[in-house]
């Protein structure tokens, strides 16, 4: 069970050299989508240089419009694997369907369940039966209770290596893409032993808001963030408006230094 009542100590989820849920604030960073070898490697080098512990990048993309870029698929997974081999950064990528599990498990270190699939129970069971760590995102309109029950599906299927992710929810507010629910972070830290990370990129949808909300995530007690970055966001094939540029990522890491370096 994911409740603190059955396990008082914090779960630490490890993949490669990354540890999420320990003493240090973990920064997972990379592009929304893997677009090309050049794009992925160049941003991966930058985020590694400034202290990211893992590389994110979507190969299967859940796009609102079917006419938008849908991701590179298995070729994108292979590029993530190559980046990991060259830079030593473990990888996080989204699995959208059970049929993608074999290739995901072959090439990726941590399986992301996207917001749109938080209640895809067949997929939750499939990642639960795998041995890979899972980053489970809160659904667009899911309550905290529903998020915890989704995590329970994975846990109950045999996989205790679950990272919860608050990525913003739908509210009446339209000034930002979503409303980042920082209450959820403080609440979840009390209710569950699982690590909790924040996605300030999807939580705001606005590049200029990502650094302040990352600081807020650290202040409220999150175990880390997963953040989108692109060296040329104007050319990005998805979510360019919320991607941190290279200099902004450097700035982010400087501002998070006390948390990232905590002993
Ligand atoms: C993503 O991480 O690129 C993504 C699609 O996130 P979410 O599922 O939170 O919308
Ligand atoms: Mn995205």
UniProtKB/TrEMBL annotation:
This is 2-keto-3-deoxy-D-arabino-heptulosonate-7-phosphate synthase I beta. GO terms for biological process: aromatic amino acid family biosynthetic process. It comes from Photobacterium marinum. GO terms for molecular function: aldehyde-lyase activity; transferase activity. It comes from the Bacteria. Keywords: Transferase. Residues 21-257 form the DAHP synthetase I/KDSA domain. The keyword Zinc does not apply.
């Amino acid at each position: 069970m994911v409740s603190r009542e059955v396990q008082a100590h914090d779960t630490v989820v490890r993949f490669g050299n990354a540890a999420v849920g320990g003493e240090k604030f973990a920064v997972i960073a990379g592009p929304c989508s893997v677009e090309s070898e050049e794009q992925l490697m160049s941003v991966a080098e930058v985020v590694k240089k400034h202290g990211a512990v893992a590389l994110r990048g979507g190969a299967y993309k859940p796009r609102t419009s079917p006419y938008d870029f849908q991701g590179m698929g298995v070729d994108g997974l292979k590029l993530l694997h190559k980046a990991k081999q060259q830079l030593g950064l473990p990888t996080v990528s989204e699995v959208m369907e059970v049929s993608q599990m074999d290739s995901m498990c072959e090439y990726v270190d941590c399986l992301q369940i996207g917001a749109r699939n938080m209640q895809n129970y067949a997929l939750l069971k499939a990642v639960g039966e795998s041995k890979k760590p899972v980053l489970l995102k809160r659904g667009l309109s899911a309550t905290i209770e529903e998020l915890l029950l989704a995590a329970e599906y994975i846990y109950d299927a045999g996989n205790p290596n679950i990272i919860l992710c608050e990525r913003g929810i739908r509210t009446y507010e339209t000034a930002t893409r979503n409303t980042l629910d920082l209450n959820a972070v403080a609440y979840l830290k009390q209710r569950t032993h699982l690590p909790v990370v924040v996605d300030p990129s999807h939580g705001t949808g606005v590049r200029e808001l990502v650094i302040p909300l990352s600081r807020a995530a650290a202040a409220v007690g999150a175990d880390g963030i997963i953040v989108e970055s692109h060296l040329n966001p104007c050319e990005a094939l998805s979510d360019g408006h919320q991607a941190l540029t290279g200099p902004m990522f450097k700035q982010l890491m400087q501002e998070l230094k006390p948390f990232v370096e905590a002993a």
